[in-house]
Each structure stands twice: as C-alpha cells, then as structure tokens.
Amino acid sequence: MGSHTHEHRHGGHGHSHGEHGHTHDGIDWSTRIGYLRREDAVAAEANAGIAERLGGGLAGGATIVDIGSGAGGQAAAFARTLAGRGGGRIVLVDAVPELLDAAGEAVAEALGGGVTGESVIVEKVCVDAASDELLKQVPEADLVWASRVVHHLPDEQAGVDRLARLVNSGGLLALSEGGLATRYLPWDTGVGEPGLQDRLIAARDLWFARMRAEMPGAQRMPYGWGAALSKAGLADVTAFSALIDHPAPAAPAVREAVVEWLTALSERMDEDLSGTDRDAVRALLDPAADTYVGARDDIFLLSAATVYLGRRP
User: Fold this and answer.
1) Which Gene Ontology biological process is one annotated for this entry (predicted)?
2) Would you put residue 60 in left (φ > 0), alpha (ψ -120 to 50) or beta?
3) What is the DSSP letter of 179?
4) Does 14 map to a domain?
C-alpha cells in the first residue's frame, strides 16, 4: 500500500486470503509480483519509517507477524529494524505461495545473509486471513502488521477481531488502510480533458465498491478503522500517516511504476471511464507518443498511507 494507495481506494496488495493465487477479491496476485516489487521500491523510505516507528520500541527478541506480506517490502524493513535491535523473529503470512517465496527473498536480501541476518529468524505460513486456521498456524506476536489486507476480506470487523487475537498482551496491532489516493499526473496532461487524475480516482472507487459488493459473504463495516480496532478490544487506539513523495522530474523507476499502475487501472476500470478519457489513457500509455507517461518529466508520485494501531491490554 507497500507504496500504499495505488491500485484502488486503499491500495494494491490485499492478498493474504484465498487459494491458488486467487483471493476473496478475485485477483490473481501470483501474476503481480513484479508490480508489487516496484510498488515496494518506490515506498522504501516510507516503509523504513513505519518499521522504525512501530518496531523501534520492541524489546530484543520480539516477534513480528506480517499478514499479507506480498512481495516483502515492509517485512524487509521490519527485519532490518529487528536486526538493529539485536534480533528477533518475523513471520510472513500469505495465502499465495508465490508471494510468500518473493517476500522471503526480499527479507533475505535485506538481511544480507551475514551475521546480522542470523539474528533474525524468518518463518513463512501459507494460510487464509479470513479463516480461523490463521489462529492455529500463526504464533502470537508483539506486533501484528497488515497492510491493505483487511479491506479485501468479506467481513472486515471479523478480520480485525481475528488479527487482534494474534497480539500478545501489551503488543500492537497495526493496520495500513486508507490514506490519500496516489497522484502522479499533472492537471492537464495535454490529451483529452483536464482533471483526468480525479476521474481515474473516481473510477477506481467505483471498481472497489463493486469488488466489495460482489464478494461472496461480504459484510459492510459502516465506521472507520480506528473504531474497528476499539470494537476488537484494543486500547490506546491512534493513527499516523506516512508520506510517499517523489517530486517531478521523477526517477525512471517511478515513471515505470506509474506506467504499470495506469495500465492496470485502465484494464479494470475501462467501463467506468468516458470515451474521451479512455482515449487519453491510451495516449498516455503509448510509447510512441510524445505524451507517454514513461518518458515525461512532469510525472511525480505523491500519496499517504494511514496506519491505525491499538494495543492489546
């Protein structure tokens, strides 16, 4: 949501639930590892800040559980924080085996395989976050982290309740949900009508609402994430936001990520865009056009991820 708010209302990797790569949201996350890695790369600084803020106060030997670990960007940041505090254990949890492998590789790379790495134990658990099997297979932890996962579960409050049960007494549950939608296009791109970015965000919100409505067994949660943490029995509920800011002219890696987000968004949300906007998006994605987002020096990336946290009494 890694990066944190790119793909739809809350972001792009709610992938800790389902079978054979397909999850409750109907997305085959096993095909999106490259996308998730690029998302992690552009969010690296924000991820490091989150890891230090949440993990910096943990005692040596602490256990961190990462629910829906994706390509492992945040887990890698947590692993570095644990290594800097004398070690500990990080448990990667996902329902997609390919993502678990990718996250394991990211953590191993972050630790460098040296002496520092040996102080951090890494475990992988393949389980659906919407199932009570989670409570049987995943150990209790000092910090349970879930980035843009719960909004993909059919019953979000039940999902929060389940995650809260994984937290040790005195430990933290932290959910990265919501924040500010990612912006990366100038107001007037030179093709179609100005204000395309706002209409893309509106189309993404329609897609998200449809995804929730069509999800088997979906329950509405008509209140905010902080209230959900309180209802789960957690205390000292609060929140903070992490900024992801890559001003123009953005590095090639950022522009490449924008090309991929815009491509994915246009494929899913084409039906919710006007003909003019569909043509504009195609022009922005045409490598032969001078409007191509991958080559423009006015492309930027600005978003904020909000992290809600509560302590288990």
Assistant:
1) methylation
2) beta
3) -
4) no
Residue 3 in domain? no
pLDDT tens digits, one per residue of 57-94: 898 899 999 999 999 999 999 999 999 988 999 999 99
Number of domains present in the structure of the chain: 1
**What is the tens place of the pLDDT at every residue in 203-233?**
999 999 999 999 999 999 999 999 999 999 9
What does pTM read for this prediction?
0.89
Measured between alpha carbons, how far is 159 from 228 in angstroms, rounded to an integer? 10
Burial class (CB in 10 A: 0-12, 13-18, 19+), 149: buried
Say if residue 46 is exposed, middle or buried (CB neighbours under 10 Å; 0-12, 13-18, 19+): buried
Bridge-based pairing of strands 235-246 and 301-311 is antiparallel
Q: Which domain holds residue 294?
A: 29-311
Q: How far apart are CA 18 and CA 68, in angstroms?
A: 11
Report the SS3 class of residue 194.
coil
